[in-house]
Amino acid sequence: RNDDYGGNLLHRFERSIADLAEAALHHGLHYELLIIEWNPPAAHARLREAVAWPDALLDVRIITVSANLHAEALCLGWEYEAKNLGIALARGKFVLTSNADIILSDALVAFLATQALNDDSFYRADRHD
Predict the structure, then answer these.
(1) Which of 72, 55, 63 is CA-nearest to residue 1?
(2) Phi, psi values for residue 38, rounded to 5°
């Protein structure tokens, strides 16, 4: 959502996707970036128009959940509903869920590019602020 959550969110989001695009290009990572824009505020531009999208991004899909659907779903929040929707709609064999302003380390992107993930494993990474 383009709602400035936490302050300067649009800039943080743009930095996150620019870093992903650069690291993925460098390491040869093929990915789908699925963005769930949950109940976007009517007073703000949608992400598709508001973001300065890097040319190097590969497969990007934006799914918008309308205010009507949000109301019908009786959501008490939206973060995990959005993540679950993204997981359900993802086309890849493996899924990484994240927040809009998370920057993946170069080492993580390099590892993902090796395609050495195991089907029968659950992976997690600690966050470093």
Answers:
(1) 63
(2) -90, 115
Per the CB < 8 A criterion, the answer to whether 78 and 64 are in contact is: no
Q: Which tokens sit at 81? A: 């509903």
Q: How far apart are CA 77 and CA 75, in angstroms?
A: 5
Give the span between the Cα atoms of 66 and 71, in whole angstroms: 9
List of residues 6+ apart from 82 with CB closer than 8 A: 36, 38, 65
Q: Whole-angstrom distance between the N-terminal and C-terminal Cα of the chain?
A: 22
pLDDT tens per residue across all 129 residues of the chain: 778 888 999 999 999 999 999 999 999 999 999 999 988 888 999 999 999 999 888 889 999 988 787 777 766 666 888 888 899 999 999 999 999 999 999 999 999 999 999 999 999 888 777
Print the SS3 string covering 44-76. CCCHHHHCCCCCCCCEEEEEEECHHHHHHCCCC
Q: Do 17 and 47 meet the contact criterion of CB atoms below 8 Å apart?
A: no
